[in-house]
Write a structure and sequence with these properties.
The mean pLDDT is 89. By secondary structure, the chain is mainly alpha-helical. It has helices at residues 5-16, 20-27, 31-38, 46-64. It has one domain (5-64): lambda repressor-like DNA-binding domains (434 Repressor (Amino-terminal Domain), Orthogonal Bundle). Helices cover 68% and strands 0% of the residues. It contains four helices and no strands. The N and C termini lie far apart (32 Å). Residues 9-63 form the HTH cro/C1-type domain. GO terms for molecular function: DNA binding. It comes from Massilia atriviolacea.
């Protein structure tokens, strides 16, 4: 299933428990940009798109790693 950029950002926000401001800092963008994307306006700079994809991968790679017993 393909996910749009808004969904990826919502998943990061929920998984990390971050505010829009914290997301903006982590992505190297502004809070209004994060707000716009979260509200369904998927148009953003390529650098922001790549940062969201990388952060999503990093956040959920941690979740997917098996734990040692």
């Amino acid at each position: 299933m393909e996910k749009n950029i808004s969904t990826l950002l919502m998943e990061i926000k929920a998984q990390q428990g971050w505010t829009q401001t914290r997301l903006a800092v982590e992505l190297g963008t502004t809070q209004p940009t994060v707000n716009r994307i979260l509200n369904g306006q998927d148009d953003c700079k390529v650098t922001t798109f790549k940062a969201i994809c990388a952060l999503h991968g990093a956040c959920f790679a941690q979740v997917a790693e098996p734990t040692s017993i």
